Amino acid sequence: MAAVLGTERPVVRKGESDMIVCLMIRTSVGVVGSAVIALGCSLYGQEFAVSAAIAAVPVAAALAQRSSTTVGLTQPLTASQRWAYYIHRTYSPHRLGLLAAETAMDHALREPTCWDRGLGSYVTRYARAFDRRLIRKTAEFGLGFLTGEDLRYQPLFSGPLHGRFWHSVRSAVVARMSRGTEQPAYTRFAAVALAEVSTAHWIGRPLEPGWVAETLGWGVLDQIQINLLDEFGPDFRRFGRRVGKRLWRALESSR
């Protein structure tokens, strides 16, 4: 065993590194968003969270409309491509694993608070999370097929950091059309609202207009996290490999 440990390098697989990166990005964005809302609530009361969420959608639409004549980055999405994209984002082992990692974080934070931190509660949280994803992705697939909206994220992978970050944020609220233009991602907004309303019974949440508007804001934030993972995931993996190699050399030189 010692010989094996002394000759083999520890390997971090792509799926495992994606989960680590996902947790890092989700934590960073979530902490910043929660801090802003918490500060607003402490200064202006609980209505701040609802007001901020309600304001997020029209602001997002305005951002999207600024470049409504931008040429599309890809060819129009075919029916078979749309179906393959739906299957991958909803049922692929990679995405299910990421969902399990996200659920583990919610479980550790005891979110929602109506469930404890027992094993059964983790299973319930995962079932709720998958139910929301299934409804949302299915709605995006169906509505996107009818409207022609293309919600796929196109990473830049290079260029200035601020430009890539802004591209990730902006892509969460825009959809490309077959004619090469862009418009607010109405399909995504509708799918988020439908998923939250359809799964409110899991936590006994009453359906209120303010809460539905708030879910749209959190839905946009969630999509930003996903886009950041797609955009900067390869950079984090390369950085992790470089750090790992340096640590390995340091360990070997110290022997």
- Secondary structure: helix percent: over 70%
Number of helices: 9
Radius of gyration: 20 Å
Strand order of the largest sheet: 1-2
Major β-sheet, in short? 2 strands, antiparallel
**How many β strands by DSSP?**
2
Q: Which class do the helix and strand fractions yield?
A: mainly alpha
User: Which shape, going by the Cα principal axes?
Assistant: globular
β-strand amount: under 5%
Order of helices and strands: HHHHHHHEEHH
- Estimate nothing, just give the exact number of structural domains: 1
Distance between the termini: 17 Å
Low confidence ranges: 1-12, 61-73
- Determine the mean pLDDT: 79
Can you give a write-up of this model?
This protein is mainly α and 255 residues long. The protein has one domain (16-235). Helix content is 72%, strand content 2%. It has helices at 2-7, 14-44, 47-65, 79-91, 93-108, 119-147, 161-171, 186-198, 209-253; strands spanning 174-176, 182-184. Strands 1-2 form a two-stranded antiparallel sheet. Helix 3 (47-65) crosses helix 9, helix 6 runs antiparallel to helix 8 (186-198) and helix 7 (161-171) packs antiparallel against helix 9 (209-253). The model is unreliable at 1-12 and 61-73 (pLDDT under 50).
